[in-house]
Amino acid sequence: MNQNVIKFVKAFQSLSANEKAQVIEIAKALNDAGPINESRVIRSFGLESSSTTINFAPAPGACPACGK
Questions:
Q1: 57: in domain
Q2: CA 58 to chain centre
Q3: How confident is the model over 11-64, as pLDDT tens digits?
């Protein structure tokens, strides 16, 4: 079995009954949504991620001032 599947199953087993029901509900919604509606489903459950870092460096290459 894939290591990611094993980790998921172990984490799932450690959840409470209510949390397991929520995971199952989200998984069913994602499975039924298809690729076009998947982002809508993710947003509706509040699962979207936001960037925590901002890169101010020039796009190609390094910073002309500091060289990083």
A1: no
A2: 28
A3: 999 999 999 999 999 888 878 877 667 777 777 777 666 556 666 666 666 666
* Spatial separation of the C-alpha atoms in residues 65 and 7, rounded to whole Å: 45
Is residue 61 included in any domain, yes or no?
Answer: no
The tokens for 5 are 């599947």
Residue 1 corresponds to which tokens in the numbers above? 């079995």
Task: Determine the residue type at 3.
Answer: Q
Residue 38 near residue 47 (C-beta atoms within 8 A)? no
Supply the range of the domain harboring residue 11.
3-44
Structure tokens at 54: 């901002």
Burial 29-66 (b: 16+ CB within 10 A, else e): beeeeeeeeeeebbeeeeeeeeeeeeeeeeeeeeeeee
Task: Name the pTM for this structure.
Answer: 0.52
